[in-house]
Amino acid sequence: MPADKRNKLRELQSTLGKIEVALGTISDAIVWTDQAGRIQWCNKTFDELVGNPHILNLGKYLFELLPLKEHGTLLPPKGHPVILILQEKNNLDGYYEYDRNDKIVYLEFLGRYLEMPGANESAVMVIRDITEKKNLEQIKLQSEALQRAANAIVITDNQGAVIWVNRSFGLLTGYQLEEIYGRNLSILKSGQHDKSFYRNLWDTILSGKVWEGETVNRKKDQNLYVERQTITPVLDGNGKISNFIAVKEDISERKKTELELEEYRGKLEQMVNEKTRELKRVQDELVNRAMEAGMSQMAAIWLHNIGNAITPLNVLMEKMKTDELGNISRFLQKCHDDLVIHAADLGHYVSNGQRGRQVFDYMGELIHSLSDHDKKQSDMLGRMDAALSYISQILTLQQHYASGSQEIKELVDLNDLIEDAIRLQTGTLERRGIAVKRNFLEPMPKLLIDKNRLMQVIVNLVKNSCEAIEMQQSGPGEKVIEVKTFAQSDRLGFEIVDDGIGIDPAYIDKVFELGKSQKGSSGFGLYYCKMFVENSNGKLVFLSRGPGKGASVKVAFDRTG
């Protein structure tokens, strides 16, 4: 080789050596790869970045030696910047994270694609560690966030001396950092908390625990305010308390609102109690009205039945007042006069005279008429006696079930009570052509209950069934109310079933509410029925399969009363 060429080669080698030394001394990591992403050359800073001797890095795939993350997510090999540069044959810059010894390192990549004549394509990357800068930015961001936080934030040393406060602390208390730096927060004490309160606070935070509570403090202008405060101990590397961080929230308005709400709640409770008493009074009044409605209903039934009995009595009395017997007497007198006049020639008068022959015929008819009249009189007297007996029964029942103002419980036979209720409404049942089918349990155990009020309930329910049947637009078929009594291990009761108008099942829950009658009445009667049954340790169940399909009411009481 000529001397000049050897000299140029030595100069080139010297220059390359100087360049490598220079590249090895810079703070940025530099790496050169082939077209597959294998490392062909790297500087000392790169070796230090990956923590490997230089010789072990050469020939390794860069994406294996330096796995990268983006926003905390590990990139797959095809997403690694060196592969993207080589595949897309384009430059690529970006920011990535690298997990080195369980510590996140932030890296800035400047990647360049190279394709030189007579050589394969390559990728050259400059990698800069920006972790410190990133941390400084993060600290700055966190500091700005703390400074702008809506809550007041205070940092003290482990003795409670203030070393930093944010802007909100000044707005809350009126104190700026230069006024309270190095001072204890006891300057905020209001005097409304005793020594044990602060002793508990310090015992908690000095033990390394977080203290949280409400404090009444005093501002610089001496006005009081209420704050919700959280004090958190901060530990150093040796596990000892180095600082305390207090976060304070002004809750004065909230406490004021809570106090106002408490006062309003007290007034509301008072109003509720007053309304409850008023509703109780109204309920008692409605109950009395319901009882009066039940008594009026029974009285109406009694008067109606008495009226039904008195009406035929009046008719019978009028018939007895007719002059039918007088007419017969006059005819007899006339026959007698004729016979007296013709006494001398009675044989000739009777045998030959037309009028004489009629006298005996008249007398026969009159005798027959007298017999019929006597029979009619006897029949009318019998019916009058039955009507008077019925009136007597009604009056006896009325006296038997006369309701008093006080509840009086006694042992009652349900069969007898229901029979009396049916007897009271005999006239209504007969007029409407309704038959009552009895299915009584015999013998029926006796029930301890207020007989008079239960009588009102049964009368009301039977009457309700009668009205339901009357409202049913059905054919001339049989109209029936079935009444059953039953006894179970712990319950006694009865059931009334009718083939009346029925009710929509969706309306059943409302049928016993005040003012919810479908018949246009006030609904007091049915309301009273349900109220009395439930107040007497009983249960009332109303069932219907729908309009036009009849209904049933089942009432059961606790056997113990």
Description:
The protein has 561 residues and is α+β, with helices and mostly antiparallel strands. It folds into four domains: 22-136, PAS domain (Beta-Lactamase); 149-255, Beta-Lactamase, CATH 3.30.450.20; 277-400; 410-558, 2-Layer Sandwich (Heat Shock Protein 90), CATH 3.30.565. It has 17 helices and 19 strands. The chain has helices at 3-25, 44-50, 54-57, 62-65, 81-88, 131-148, 167-173, 177-180, 195-206, 252-321, 324-341, 346-352, 354-400, 414-424, 426-431, 451-471, 524-535; strands spanning 29-33, 39-42, 69-70, 73-74, 92-100, 103-114, 122-129, 152-157, 162-165, 211-218, 224-235, 241-250, 409-412, 434-439, 447-450, 479-487, 491-498, 538-543, 551-558. The radius of gyration is 57 Å and the shape is elongated.
Short description:
This protein is α+β, with helices and mostly antiparallel strands and 561 residues long. The chain is 50% helix and 23% strand.
Protein topology:
Layout: H1 3-25, E1 29-33, E2 39-42, H2 44-50, H3 54-57, H4 62-65, E3 69-70, E4 73-74, H5 81-88, E5 92-100, E6 103-114, E7 122-129, H6 131-148, E8 152-157, E9 162-165, H7 167-173, H8 177-180, H9 195-206, E10 211-218, E11 224-235, E12 241-250, H10 252-321, H11 324-341, H12 346-352, H13 354-400, E13 409-412, H14 414-424, H15 426-431, E14 434-439, E15 447-450, H16 451-471, E16 479-487, E17 491-498, H17 524-535, E18 538-543, E19 551-558
Helix pairs in contact: 10-13, 10-16, 10-17, 11-13, 12-13, 14-16, 16-17
